[in-house]
């Protein structure tokens, strides 16, 4: 009896194991069926997409064949027209003999050159009312000495603003703002200034203040022009200046890799590249978008150049002379072609202390704001018309 119970128990156990195995196999089969169904759906979708792609490719090839045929017909037509024109030219040459050589009178050439110049002048007057250029420097005024050897100071060049902005040094991020020139001159150092901290450091001395915006140069891996709104204390825009293999603009101010300038016609950029390493280049910029509108390679050399500025579309470059404490503008470039170096008067700066690290023109006052070895200097200019030369 006890043996029978053992046999029954073993049989039940075997049956349970068998049932568990069957259940496991059923689950596996169901999983495999699901995966086969999913694969079948994906295969069907891929096949449908391939058919659609094939139809699109066939349609595009048909269109290309049509366009190819149209192009071939057009080319055949052009070839026929060219042959006709060549035959007509051959006929005209047979009907008209060669023109005799003519000696051109020198006076006639001079008249033609004068006529071209007059047309250029008329075109310039039509495009712009600005035709001023420097005749000489009338006076020099030394306001004070503050800050380091190199820097830049200016006013807002777009309007009659009394505020003065001091950029001390060539790698700083804080502008010193004075309410008036009088406050600046009577301030012990920078104590009466309002400090404006920029979001990044400037490079060199090539900055300007225009329409309540500071345009300054920041050099990292690339040279960037930053437009900073002083009213909102925010960066309005920035643009990488399209310079490859740049070199310092001025031989005597190597910290300045790009020099911005403002005149009656807007914003300019003065720069130099390794490709044109011996000379200075000029670009016109859009004050809103900072886009480059036009670029020129000038004949003004970088060697012994201190600084430069722009007046009425004419670039003036100041150079150190062999005479101690003297410099002069001995190269200019007029983008309108109205004035050349041979026609321009020599402009000498009065005796100074060291070397100009910056020269900024204010078209509202017709003054040059100069930084000379830590001295802040004003130059009063005498102007004349380009067309009077």
Characterise this structure.
- The protein is an alpha+beta fold and 389 residues long.
- The protein folds into two domains: 1-87; 132-385, Neuraminidase, CATH 2.120.10.
- Helix content is 31%, strand content 34%.
- The protein has helices at 2-95, 106-127, 181-186; strands spanning 132-145, 151-154, 164-168, 174-178, 194-197, 208-210, 213-219, 223-229, 234-240, 259-263, 266-271, 279-285, 292-301, 305-311, 314-320, 327-334, 347-349, 356-362, 367-372, 375-385.
- The strands form five sheets. It has a four-stranded antiparallel beta sheet, with no helix packed on it.
- It is elongated, with a radius of gyration of 39 Å.
Tags for this model:
elongated, 2 domains, Neuraminidase, alpha+beta, 4-stranded antiparallel sheet
**SSE string:** HHEEEEHEEEEEEEEEEEEEEEE
Share in helix: 25-40%
| Assigned CATH class of the largest domain | Mainly Beta
State the major sheet. 4 strands, antiparallel
| Total domain modules | 2
Beta-strand proportion: 25-35%
In the CATH hierarchy, the architecture of the largest domain is 6 Propeller
- Which runs of at least 5 residues are low in confidence (pLDDT < 50)? 97-104, 120-127
Per DSSP, the total helix count is: 3
CA radius of gyration is 39 Å
Biggest β-sheet: strands ordered side by side in the sheet: 1-20-19-18
Class computed from helices, strands and strand pairing: alpha+beta
Shape: elongated
Average pLDDT confidence is: 84
User: What is the terminal separation in angstroms?
Assistant: 139 Å
């Amino acid at each position: 009896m006890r043996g029978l119970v053992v046999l029954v128990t073993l049989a039940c156990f075997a049956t349970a194991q068998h049932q568990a195995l069957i259940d496991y196999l059923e689950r596996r089969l169901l999983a495999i069926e699901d995966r086969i169904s999913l694969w079948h759906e994906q295969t069907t979708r891929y096949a449908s997409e391939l058919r659609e792609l094939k139809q699109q490719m066939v349609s595009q090839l048909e269109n290309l064949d049509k366009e190819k045929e149209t192009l071939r017909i057009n080319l055949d037509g052009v070839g026929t027209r060219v042959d006709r024109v060549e035959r007509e030219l051959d006929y005209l040459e047979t009907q008209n003999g060669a023109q005799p050589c003519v000696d051109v009178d020198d006076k006639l050439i001079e008249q033609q050159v004068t006529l071209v110049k007059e047309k250029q002048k008329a075109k310039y007057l039509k495009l712009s009312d600005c035709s001023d250029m420097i005749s000489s420097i009338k006076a020099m005024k030394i306001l004070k000495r503050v800050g380091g050897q190199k820097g830049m100071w200016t006013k807002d060049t777009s309007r009659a603003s009394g505020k003065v902005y001091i950029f001390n040094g060539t790698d700083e991020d804080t502008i010193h703002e004075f309410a008036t020139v009088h406050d600046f001159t009577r301030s012990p150092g920078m104590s009466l200034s309002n400090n404006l901290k920029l979001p990044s450091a400037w490079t060199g001395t090539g900055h300007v203040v225009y329409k309540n915006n500071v345009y300054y140069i920041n050099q990292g891996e690339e040279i960037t022009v930053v437009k900073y709104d002083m009213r909102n204390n925010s960066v309005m825009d920035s643009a990488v200046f399209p310079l490859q293999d740049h070199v310092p603009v001025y031989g005597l101010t190597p910290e300045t890799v790009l020099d911005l300038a403002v005149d009656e016609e807007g914003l300019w950029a003065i720069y130099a590249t390794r490709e044109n390493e011996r000379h200075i280049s000029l670009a016109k910029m859009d004050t809103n978008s900072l886009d480059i509108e036009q670029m020129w390679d000038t004949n003004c050399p970088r060697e012994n150049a201190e600084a430069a500025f722009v007046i009425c579309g004419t670039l003036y470059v100041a150079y150190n002379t062999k005479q101690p404490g003297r410099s002069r503008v001995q190269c200019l470039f007029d983008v309108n072609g109205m004035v050349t170096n041979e026609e321009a008067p020599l402009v000498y700066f009065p005796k100074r202390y060291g070397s100009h690290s910056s020269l900024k023109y204010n078209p509202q006052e017709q003054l040059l704001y100069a930084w000379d070895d830590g001295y802040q200097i004003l130059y009063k200019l005498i102007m004349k018309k380009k067309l009077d030369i």
